[in-house]
Specification:
59 residues; 51% helix; mainly alpha
Length: 59
């Protein structure tokens, strides 16, 4: 079974320069960090320790 794939306009998807602006505002970093920590506490209370660890890893 000869299946071939031809990619067209692939360069339109590989360019990451469109993400030059951050999704979150830098001046609110402390607030976002506190939200993340509160969320991990909620995950622990909900008996989701592994999910909590995944969030804590991304500090």
């Amino acid at each position: 079974t000869g299946i071939s794939v031809t990619m067209h306009n692939q360069s339109a998807f590989d360019d990451e320069s469109c993400m030059s602006t951050p999704l979150l505002e830098f001046e609110h970093t402390a607030v976002f960090k506190s939200y993340r920590m509160l969320y991990t506490e909620m995950l622990f209370a909900w008996s989701l320790p592994f999910t909590r660890l995944e969030i804590l890893k991304k500090r």
